[in-house]
TrEMBL record:
A family per Pfam: Glyco_transf_20
Keyword check for DNA damage: no
Name listed for the protein in its UniProt record: Trehalose-6-phosphate synthase
Annotated family: Belongs to the glycosyltransferase 20 family.
Pathway named in the protein's UniProt entry: Glycan biosynthesis; trehalose biosynthesis
Transferase among keywords: yes
GO molecular function terms attached to this record: alpha,alpha-trehalose-phosphate synthase (UDP-forming) activity
Annotated InterPro entries: Glyco_trans_20
Gene3D superfamilies in UniProt: Glycogen Phosphorylase B
Length: 466
């Protein structure tokens, strides 16, 4: 089979290049190993991109990376507009932040149609297409309109919210109807899957049986594929990274002090304000923890042209400075706050240096930082994961200390518990989580989805459209 994987953002094969978001970092090794063609945005826009859309095609492991310049006239409406100011807030249950204009929606559809036309270059009789994430909900339908009858699958990396929240996006019907052109639709959790099926049944009035939806496109299968990492490889990377200059400098700077770490894109879904408030509360409730434990929070700027992101960045800067001002000492900074990205290798080393990993999103599809923090630990002396129950990862990593990120006091107490957890309990919890990570790797995720896509396609071909 010849597989074409499509996502808006792609990663290149450089371990030290800062990674933006879980999707691109997760896909990189499996694309390299599988020999797939990975098509995505070059990050540049061009007028007249439709004449020769591909900016670059380069080798990527056994596969290839094909980068597309997107049409200048529609890029803003597609990326900052509909994808990240209408869909992203809706998918993360922030209906108050939805900014949805008809114009942005049309740009989104234009870019989906543009991508479909560009993909024709890679279409062979045995090609299967696998579309990633909310940027391309309608890409499958556009491909079908161009006459593509090959397997087309879709995987959503974010949560899928309840019916009422989906209904807040003005074009919800058109979009979900377009999604049914896919043979297979994959979600991170059972809960996402149930929400989607309940929408399809109640709002579109379609028949659903055993995770299969019947529509005018024939049948589509809807199933759960929790995304994973390569835990052994990440563990090796973390052990090796101990000697990296950034990691050694961090260790030297600690002077026996314990460290908690948070690594997130600067995004309102990540619960950063609540997290900082929890640390503030912890140092107020337990002044003995001042000087003995600090937080390293890496918040990589993201989607900065969107107002909600700019506002959050200012709010966090004020909050961190206020907390440091109140709790700090001449020789102790409670929160080390960095607005920049780091490569995978350095991150692996930083995770291994920290006694506590704090991953407390308000909503998150999976959250691979949680999995990477676990994999990076020293088996003889592992750290503790404090994890939001609203991250998809909490389904598997239930041996973490699970928290409700809206309960600031509860989080403060749990972080303090994590900082003082005895070795036997830390090891027990860590081993349980590592076993889960080993049983559900990124390689399994990739292979399971591709196998299921072939099967679903055969079923769709045999089905009669409504
Ligand atoms: C999330 C999304 C990805 C996206 C990433 C980074 O993980 O699911 O699709 O690539 O955030 O966001 P950005 O807008 O910088 O690509």
């Amino acid at each position: 089979m010849n597989l074409v994987v499509v996502s808006n953002r792609v990663a290149r094969g450089m371990a030290n290049e800062p990674m933006t978001g879980g999707l691109a970092a997760a896909l990189l090794p499996v694309v390299e190993e599988s020999g797939a063609i990975w098509v995505g945005s070059s990050g540049r826009v061009r007028d007249g991109a439709h004449k020769e859309p591909f900016a670059e095609i380069e080798a990527l492991g056994a596969g290839a990376l094909a980068l597309l310049d997107l049409p200048a006239a529609h890029y803003g409406g597609y990326y900052e507009g509909f994808a990240n100011s209408a869909l992203w807030p809706a998918l993360h249950s922030r209906t108050d932040l939805i900014r949805a204009s008809r114009e942005d929606y049309l740009s989104y559809r234009e870019v989906n149609a543009f991508m479909a036309r560009a993909l024709m270059r890679f279409r062979k009789p045995e090609t299967a297409f696998w579309i990633q994430d909310y940027h391309f909900l309608a890409l499958g339908a556009e491909l079908r309109d161009l006459g593509v009858s090959q397997p087309i699958g879709f995987f959503l990396h974010t949560p899928w919210p309840d019916r009422a929240t989906v209904g807040a996006v003005p074009q919800h019907r058109e979009l979900v109807t377009a999604m049914l052109a896919y043979d297979l639709i994959g979600f991170q959790t059972e809960h996402d899957c149930e929400n989607f099926l309940s929408y399809v049944q109640s709002d579109l009035g379609l028949t659903v049986a055993d995770g299969v939806v019947a529509s005018r496109h024939g049948i589509s299968r809807v199933a759960v594929f929790p995304i994973g990492i390569d835990p052994e490889k990440f563990a090796q990377q973390a052990a090796k990274a101990a000697s990296h200059p950034d990691v050694s400098r961090l260790r030297r700077s600690l002077n026996g002090e314990k460290l908690a770490i948070g690594v997130d894109r600067l995004d309102y879904s990540k619960g950063l304000v609540n997290r900082i408030n929890a640390f503030d509360r912890m140092w107020s409730l337990q002044p003995s923890l001042a000087r003995t434990a600090s937080l390293l929070q890496i918040a990589t700027p993201s989607r900065g042209a969107i107002e909600a992101y700019g506002d959050l960045q200012s709010e966090l800067a004020r909050l961190v400075s206020d907390v440091n001002g109140r709790h700090g000492e001449v020789d102790w900074t409670p929160i080390r706050y960095l607005n920049k990205g780091f490569g995978q290798t350095v991150l692996a080393g930083l995770y291994r240096t920290a006694q506590v990993g704090v991953v407390t999103p308000l909503h998150d599809g999976m959250n691979l930082v949680a999995k990477e923090y676990v994999a990076a630990q020293n088996p003889a002396d592992p750290g503790v994961l404090v994890l939001s129950k609203f991250a998809g990862a909490a389904n598997e990593l239930d041996a973490a200390l699970l928290v409700n990120p809206h309960d600031i006091e509860g989080m403060a107490r749990t972080i303090a518990t994590a900082l003082s957890m005895p070795l036997t309990e830390r090891r027990m919890r860590w081993e349980e989580m590592m076993a889960k990570l080993r049983a559900s790797t990124i390689q399994n995720w990739f292979a399971d989805f591709v196998d299921a896509l072939q099967e679903s396609h055969a079923d769709k071909e045999a089905s009669v459209p409504l």
